[in-house]
């Protein structure tokens, strides 16, 4: 999720099992009756305190992990969202820290390569948007 000026994005920090703070994009589970877009908007609000609307899809990440000694497959649908209100908050129990991070620093801050790739895609979309306006 980016600010309206497209200069910063919100990241969430969670502690891993070793106590390290890992920064990532907000995300969560789809609730019954929700679309993936509605889930993205709700999860961003719950995890960051910021209200936002969907600009466009960014991509899907599929991965496997082990939980309670069984393999779990997860698919995460990411969207480019734009903030329109709210106050930054880390009140979600799953989130340790929340921060606005300058776009230029996102890739070095994000813990996961797949999410860094999504950030590059968003930056390409912003560059194309600027070119269209200039033409």
Automatic annotation (TrEMBL):
Keyword Iron on entry: no
Family recorded in the similarity comment: Belongs to the Nudix hydrolase family.
Protein name: Mutator mutT protein
InterPro entries (alphabetical): Nudix_hydrolase, NUDIX_hydrolase-like_dom_sf, NUDIX_hydrolase_CS, NUDIX_hydrolase_dom
PROSITE patterns per the UniProt record, alphabetical: NUDIX (PS51462), NUDIX_BOX (PS00893)
GO molecular function terms listed in the Swiss-Prot or TrEMBL record: hydrolase activity
Keywords assigned by UniProt, alphabetized: Hydrolase
Residue ranges constituting the Nudix hydrolase domain according to the UniProt record: 1-123
Pfam family, any one: NUDIX
Keyword Hydrolase included in the entry's annotation: yes
Gene3D superfamilies on file: Nucleoside Triphosphate Pyrophosphohydrolase
């Amino acid at each position: 999720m980016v600010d309206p000026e497209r200069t910063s994005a919100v990241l969430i920090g969670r502690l891993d099992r070793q106590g390290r703070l890992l920064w990532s994009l907000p995300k969560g589970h789809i609730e019954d009756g929700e679309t993936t877009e509605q889930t993205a908007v709700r999860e961003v609000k719950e995890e960051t305190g910021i209200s936002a609307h969907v600009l466009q899809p960014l991509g899907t990440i599929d991965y496997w992990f082990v939980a309670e000694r069984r393999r779990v497959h997860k698919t995460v649908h990411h969207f480019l969202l734009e903030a329109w209100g709210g106050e930054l908050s880390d009140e979600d129990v799953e989130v340790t820290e929340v921060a606005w991070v300058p776009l230029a620093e996102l890739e070095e801050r994000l813990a996961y390569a797949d999410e860094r790739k999504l950030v590059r895609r968003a930056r390409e979309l912003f560059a194309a948007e600027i070119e269209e306006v200039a033409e």
